[in-house]
Amino acid sequence: MDSTRSIYELKSAFIRAQVRILSESLEPPEDWQRYAVETDEGELSAKVIEDVLHKVNSAAKQHNRVVYSSQAIHHIASQIASLYWAAISQEAQSQATFAKGVGQLTDLSKQWNIVKLPLELEAPGATDEQDARYHELRERLASLDEQRQKRQRRHDQLKHLRRLLGPFEDPRADIQPNLVTRDGELVQELEKMRMLMARVGGRIAQQKGHDHVPANGEYLLPGSDRKLEALLETEI
């Protein structure tokens, strides 16, 4: 930063430089025809592109003159300078307050108050023992604040993960209602299938006991397709 110029002058110069960049005329690249989209009316001519860019540049310059006028730049730069000096003044007052001593109402759990503590004990007549004690307490306070910040970041991370895992707290209702559970729908269907298979197996065993079994070991129930269909349609 140039120390010979004020905050207002620096910010005004910066804003004006940005406005000049925005006000520069748009120019098409030399090989723009290679990227032009073909239309039913034929290729775009250089004259059409020139006319369009002329209108766009004129509209942009007019817009910049209205929006980024000298009065607007002056107003913005003045506000920035005022905010800057207000922050500097507040910081200086805070440092002066801490130099006189830490107030009883000062919240030392806040990081911005901890960093403002002087590095050395600035008290007239302070002994070396008191200065060492102050230095030890200040380092301990800074260490505790760093640990608190780490735990806070960890807490925020776990809180975010818990929010992501929220749908899994009740998976039977939110993810898959037919999970394999004692009273789930899938278990009920498997129980029906087990009873059906037992009934079919019992009926087939009864038929084997009464019907003739061929010598080749192959066994076919008379009308087995119809009987099996009747069994499957039987309500359990």
UniProtKB/TrEMBL annotation:
> Cytoplasm as a keyword?
no
Per the record, the coiled-coil ranges are 127-154
Is-annotated flag, keyword Coiled coil?
yes
Q: Which domain of life is it from?
A: Eukaryota
Record GO cellular component, one term: Mis6-Sim4 complex
Could you tell me the keywords of this UniProt record? Coiled coil
> Record's PANTHER family?
INNER KINETOCHORE SUBUNIT FTA4
Name of the protein in question: Kinetochore protein fta4
Q: Please tell me the species this chain comes from.
A: Penicillium citrinum
